[in-house]
Amino acid sequence: MFKKVLIANRGEIALRIIRACRQLNIKTVAVYSEADRDSLHVRFADEDVCIGPPSPTESYLDAKRIIAAAEVTNADAIHPGYGFLAENAEFSEICEECDITFIGPSGHMIRQMGAKSKAKELMNNANVPIIPGSDGLLEDVEAAAVVADQVGYPVLIKASAGGGGRGMRIANGPEELETAFNMARSESVIAFHDGSLYLEKVIVKPHHVEIQLLGDNYGNIVHLGERDCSIQRRHQKLLEESPSPIVSDELRKKMGDAAILGAQAVGYRGAGTVEFLVDNDGNFYFMEMNTRVQVEHPVTEEITGIDIVCEQIKIAAGEKMDLKQDEIRFRGHVIECRINAEDPSKGFMPAPGTIKTFNQPGGHGVRLDTHAYSRYVIPPYYDSMIGKLIVRGRDRNEAIRKTLVALDEFVIEGIPTTIDFLKLILTNDNFVAGNFDTSFIETCLPEEAGIKTNGKSKTGVK
Asked: Cα(401)–Cα(125) distance, rounded to whole angstroms?
């Protein structure tokens, strides 16, 4: 087992990793930018190192500074969390070259799954259902038109190196294809320095369902069930739950088996997630594989009782998993709400600032993963997440009721947050009935989300 782990991240995920390391009797090192000097992950780590100014490119994304911090503190492993360098193949390889264990998959695995068109090809070869579309990358808009005519409109132009909803444009017909293609390519170049694109048929009104995986160095891979992530805006998730309202025991087994087949195809190691789109007929299609711990991993931890971060660390240390697929059990229903410093009425505009009052919810089955506190300053340089509220109930109805109670108790004053908007979701009749898909926000709560309707937004601005 490792003696000391450096956490190459910040906020709530850094604290989460510190807790897991303490459970495993591992010392920790926090790195931080000048903007995060007062963050709780700095306070609770055994050691801390300032790695630069607030800009992510000069701190959390600077591999040289992070490696230097690891060498100075004699850390023998680095946990990247999610975001920043978590899915950076080059960083994984740099760690290996410096004789520091990267707690995650190899650079080769990250590259295979990071290039979306390559990942799609690998999954197809492994008999994992894929969305109809281009066999590889598109050379130009003319090639895109040929494929679009074959699979039928609407189609989605996607950045091969993409993520987080960037580099994605829908064309509802031939007249929109060229504009969608050029916009997707331009955004992909800016965001990822890579203009490679591919095309997929749009699955109309799907559910976004992902399967959590764990794989060790000895070829053992298990799935930990599904999470429904359909409640999202512009491909950014707002609320996740498990089990999914549309997934039967039979479908769960099919999707779990398919996810394992895909992971086996790349010899996957560590914690990972295979994301699928599920249509109204129960057909599911591979979207992508995330080669890291997910933001929403606590949902699966609470419904299975398995500590995913601890398992991830033990796998990286070379331990053999003692988890058996037929022994994994699911208990009740779990909902996670992402609490962000954002103003939903203004299109979820980030709202950094000082938290004046911070009262945490509590009670049976209530968990809060957060790095915030009263007088904490949400900096403007990073993701706007304040925390994640995770609630477990005996069934879905109880989980919804308990989550609403917890949100009522959750008091954050001084900055706008998504708390009230999450209450609107949880009390919406369609959500309560399980009658929703990835278009839920746009179709059920457009004005509340600041989405333009009839030429106006909620604020009345054209």
From this structure: 44
Q: CATH no. for residue 155? A: 3.30.1490.20
Residues acting as catalytic residues: 292
Domain-embedded: residue 414: yes
Model confidence, pTM: 0.89
Number of structural domains found in the chain: 3
Q: How far is CA 448 from the centre of its chain?
A: 24
Choose the final residue of a domain: 60, 77, 100.
Answer: 100
Instruction: Give the three-class secondary structure for 389.
Output: strand
pLDDT tens for each residue of 393-429 = 999 999 999 999 999 999 999 999 999 999 999 999 9
Coil, strand or helix: which one is 309?
helix
Same domain membership, residue 434 and residue 364: yes
The CB density around residue 258, as the number of other CB atoms within 10 Å, is: 22
Q: For 321, which DSSP code? A: P
3-state secondary structure of 327: helix
- Per-residue pLDDT band for 186 (boundaries 50, 70, 90) equals very high
How many angstroms from the chain centroid is the CA of residue 351? Answer: 21
Beta bridge partners of 386: none
CATH number of the domain enclosing 11 = 3.40.50.20
